[in-house]
Amino acid sequence: MAPPAASQRYPSPSQPSGKSEVTDLKSQLRQLAGSRAPGVDDSKRDLFKKVISYMTIGIDVSSVFGEMVMCSATSDIVLKKMCYLYVGNYAKGNPDLSLLTINFLQRDCKDQDPMIRGLALRSLCSLRVPNLVEYLVGPLGSGLKDNNSYVRTIAVTGVLKLYHISASTCIDADFPATLKSLMLHDSDAQVVANCLSALQEIWSLEVSHSEEACREKESLLSKPVIYYFLNRIKEFNEWAQCLILELAVKYVPSDSNDIFDIMNLLEDRLQHANGAVVLATVKVFLQLTLSMTDVHQQVYERIKSPLLTLVSSGSPEQSYAILSHLHLLVVRAPFIFASDYKHFYCQYNEPSYVKKLKLEMLTAIANESNTYEIVTELCEYAANVDIAIARESIRAVGKIALQQYDVNAIVDRLLQFLEMEKDYVTAETLVLVKDLLRKYPQWSHDCISVVGGISSKNIQEPKAKSALIWMLGEYAQDMSDAPYVLENLIENWEEEHSAEVRLHLLTAAMKCFFKRPPETQRALGIALAAGMADFHQDVHDRALFYYRVLQYDVHVAERVVSPSKQAVSVFADTQSSEIKDRIFDEFNSLSVIYQKPSYMFTDKEHRGPFEFSDEVGNIPITPEASGDIVPAQQFEANDKDLLLSTDEKDDNKGVSITGSAYTAPSYDNSNISSQMQELAISGSATSAATPQSSFDFDDIFGLGLSTAPARTPSPPLLKLNPRAALDPGAFQQKWRQLPISLTQECSVNPQGIAALTVPQSLIKHMQSHSIHCIASGGQSPNFKFFFFAQKESEPSSNYLTECVINSSSAKAQIKVKADEQSTSQAFATVFETALSEFGMP
Amino acid sequence: MCGSFSFATDRAEVPKGSTETFFRKVKFWKEDGNAEAPPIFNVDGVNYFHVKVVGLYFVATTRVNVSPSLVLELLQRIARVIKDYLGVLNEDSFRKNFVLVYELLDEVIDFGYVQTTSTEVLKSYVFNEPILIAPARLQPIDPAAIFTQGAKRMPGTAVTKSVLANDPGGRRREEIFVDIIEKISVTFSSNGYILTSEIDGTIQMKSYLSGNPEICLALNEDLNIGRGGGVSVYDYRSSSGSGVILDDCNFHESVQLDSFDTDRTLSLVPPDGEFPVMNYRMTQEFRPPFHVNTLIEEAGRLKAEVIIKIRAEFPSDIIANTIAVQMPLPNYTSRASFELEHDAVGQKTDFKETSKMLEWSLKKASLEFSSNITKEAGPVSMTFTIPMYNVSKLQVKYLQIAKKSSSYNPYRWVRYVTQANSYVART
């Protein structure tokens, strides 16, 4: 019997302080122990209850142990149960007591009443005293053979408990084999179910040291075993059904008939009222049909309705779990759900975590046919009392606008938001309008006229302010008072706390200056002066850079800062498709709720039973290994841009395109130049700071130059191709084909470990040594990387490496596979050298 | 809210102090702008699951990447089993019966694996007797209060009897309750049209029959299932057609569906305790019990007039109770005044200064009434309960209990109730 966790609470003054009451109880129990008077069991019960209630509130009642055991020599099962609860709590910490307890429990394991046999056995196995495991083997052995099914179910779980206390004792007693035969022959469904869960756990843990366990584990997935379970699935209770369905997911069907047989067998499970059963069934269906596109699609159609019913019939919490799974499916196959959009409308009394999911789903399924209705509905939420949801709804409208071809109506709605005059609505909308303009510059006219009417004073949020400032700079020629609004903002430079906003102010002032020099000149001067004096490094650097590039040549400055732009066609998705696939593979698990693959939030031993993640077929693919051979660095850069969602990137993108497409008002160049001179004069206040900064700058540069050669590794024996390329598919294939030519363990220096907070740091480092990462994963302390490299002279000679780093032990395990095995030692040396330099300055 | 009862039924893999971690997290949840903690979250590698049932938190923790639905269903089921045994679920009944609760949990979960959640099966393993809370000590629960607690699933109406309880005479009263509970969601547009409407229904059963007799439950013969599910046969039917068309439904595991396709009867051997026989969902058009009309008119620069008209659309012999109308007003609203119709009795109006919420509650409603309120605002929402009335027209035609003897005639209670889920009129 499981003990209650002792509460942390201290007894309050009104509660018994302990001592005297416990002594009192002790003497009362002693009196009753020997008594055979009628009604004595009732008084005992009351006393036992008192003892247990003291125990739960944290009073130490271990001193009455002997009396409790004595009193339990009775046939009253209620007393027995309370006593087991009690001894379970105290025996663990106290070896003397545990021996006493074991004797008492062993005796009860032979009781006439099967209830008592079962309970005693369960308490015995729950004691978790490692040096007393030999006392468990006997009772467990007879428990497994007991003619009462209750005792057998407990014994089966007891075997698993024993395995966790002492694996060798459990294996030596040959319990797994006994469980296997029980699993296949016992008449009681719960005994069978417990055997299945125990065996799954035991064999999964044994796999690493025993070939046999590996075979046994495989055999659970064999056709006869799977069908044995599936054919009698209705005999099991709903929880055991989930267990069986989870097993069936792992089964590899032999042909399409096999697939249809299983699906027909499980069809009615979709009508179960228990969401867990339905989701487990859905997972089986989805996994089985992955390779059959049309059937897979039919499965989506089939599961839609049952899932929607579950969403609306359970508690909000249950709905949430189901809805998270629907969310995953909707995002994967939006077209299948396009006509069901009304089901994802928010209800006013739903918790915000449900509403948020629904908004994302509505965004995903919006298409030509339903956009109007969906956007109309979303606009209603924008006025919602729940501000977080109102914001999300506006963002959703914006996202839909960005993914649609016909945006007229949506733009109108967005502009109407601006008229609502609610601060947060305006803020969210501004950010969206900015993104829209980047994608659909043709809308600038309509948007700008509305945006121009917004007073910058009402906007406080940095993101929104930045968006407004960006538009002021970008469309300065269309907004009559743009220079003055900017000037106003620049004059309040000191009060502007957000560096992001200040950066945008600098850029906007520049852009505005190119378009309307006379009006902006003063503002730009102030902005540059303030920027160069700014304590924030980025702001300071940007101001300095602008100042210099203006000094160098105004036209160059214009080409750099305000080139003509190409409209953004697609905004990058935040999650790579590999991650999404990975989450889909982990359907019906927490991965779906957190929208992350399991390796991101849980360590390996807890990923659930039956995790085959060691084979290379399941390389944990991280974003940097997306599709082609994007070097990790580059991908990360993209990601960063996305996160910032600002526009420096495309501000600079056009540089190479040419400045000729530029269509600013035709101020003649001499005019600008003369303005420049004035600017230089008016900026004289800043000149004092300038030489100092430029000195710093040169210094940094010089330093960079002098250290750079030192950092390049001394020429290794083996020359690797710095631009080697290999796609992940080819890598996987090669990894499967090639034998391991070398396994090595080496240590990683402490600086390296310190730098390894994220896998990316190592990936970059190795790349500088011409060793490229194809996939990586894991979390502190365990990281896993797959690298590849190519001989510079022969591109066909590849080296594939698996590198597992444990940051707490500072050790790295390397497995090398090579086309040219004779050179693998040379490669390993290069690899090790590179690794040893990781984190070194 | 409640003190914590923690049960180390699992495998000691979760650190001590997780109870504190949980409460701290839930109480001060502020992530991504949401004030409400989601039912599942992860702190330091430990996953916390919780469901809230009548103000009590049922929490589970694990480090394993488990099926979230399984854990949440289980917690919900545990709450139900405990209620079946204690009769009433509240902090007080928990305190008085903690040994019984331990006993139950011990049999429900062993070493992290669910053994059984059947009230029936558990009866043979559980030996403590519940200490029942005297009815007098129960707070007088307004029937509607149960319905409007926010939880979507209704607790079993007025039945607060433990499955282990006997009547004062020592004899068990043979009875069975069948409740058809429909939660309806309707959204009216600002001009009174119905934008969306849905019925989520449950046929809930609670049996106190001894000897597990088989039961037959006959539903409407013209019941059809599967609308929009590819079969377009019924699509041409208008809503006034005689058939009841469910979009979809699911069943409790004890239900035998052998004759369901032919004569729409469900047969089952009801296990002890409360359980849903069938859940169903319907989007077929139906006549909403109340029609809500809202009109907002500017009446001067700093003043506006809101007229809310609510018209009951059900027969006058049916009485709805505890109707409440809520409407959020803008933040800058300083004052609201109300005008009710002259003959309005038992109505209360209130303007909640802090939440800027307008509230109007009615004890009974059978006909039309309207009210004038001052100042503009957000959607009008309504909550209500209408006993002995259901909008879907789904019916239990008869309830047959396999007879043990000619004198065996247990009480059968078939009750209907309609309840607002999300009943909103936009302005």
Describe this structure in words.
- The complex is a heterodimer of chains A (841) and B (427).
- Chain A is mainly alpha-helical and 841 residues long.
- Chain A contains 42 helices and 5 strands.
- In chain A, strand 3 and strand 4 form a beta hairpin.
- In chain A, helix 1 packs parallel to helix 3 (65-71), helix 11 (189-206) packs antiparallel against helix 12 (211-219) and helix 30 packs across helix 31.
- The two termini of chain A are 58 Å apart.
- By secondary structure, chain B is mainly beta.
- Chain B is built from 7 helices and 24 strands.
- Chain B has helices at 18-27, 68-86, 91-96, 98-108, 119-123, 143-147, 260-263; strands at 40-43, 46-53, 56-62, 109-110, 113-114, 175-188, 194-207, 215-219, 223-225, 244-246, 248-251, 255-256, 265-268, 273-282, 290-298, 304-312, 320-328, 338-340, 347-352, 357-365, 369-374, 380-387, 396-401, 411-425.
- In chain B, the strands form 6 sheets. In chain B, strands 11-14-7-6-24-22-17-20-19 form a 9-stranded mixed β-sheet.
- Chain B is globular, with a radius of gyration of 24 Å.
- The model of chain B is unreliable at 1-6, 135-159, 228-240 and 363-376 (pLDDT under 50).
- Chains A and B meet through helix 2, helix 4, helix 8, helix 11 and helix 14 of A and strand 2, helix 2, helix 4, strand 5 and strand 7 of B.
- Chain A: Residues 718-836 form the Beta-adaptin appendage C-terminal subdomain domain.
- Chain A: It is found in: Endomembrane system.
- Chain A: This is Beta-adaptin-like protein.
- Chain A: Belongs to the adaptor complexes large subunit family.
Most extensive interface: pair and counts? A-B, 96 and 94 residues
Mean pLDDT over the full residue set of chain A = 79
Low-confidence stretches of chain B: 1-6, 135-159, 228-240, 363-376
As residue ranges, the low-confidence spans of chain A are 1-16, 609-670, 680-716
Query: How many strands appear in the DSSP assignment of chain B?
Result: 24
Mean pLDDT of chain B: 77
Oligomer: heterodimer
> Care to count the β-strands of chain A?
5
Strand content of chain A: under 5%
- Largest sheet of chain A, described in full? 5 strands, antiparallel
* Number of helices, counting only DSSP H or I runs of 4 residues or more of chain B: 7
Indicate the overall shape of chain A.
globular
What's the alpha carbon Rg of chain A, rounded to whole Å?
Answer: 35 Å
Proportion of beta-strand residues of chain B: 35-45%
The shape of chain B, in one word, is: globular
Q: What proportion of the residues of chain B is helical, as a percent range?
A: 10-25%
Distance between the termini of chain A: 58 Å
In DSSP terms, counting alpha (H) and pi (I) runs of 4 or more, how many helices of chain A? 42
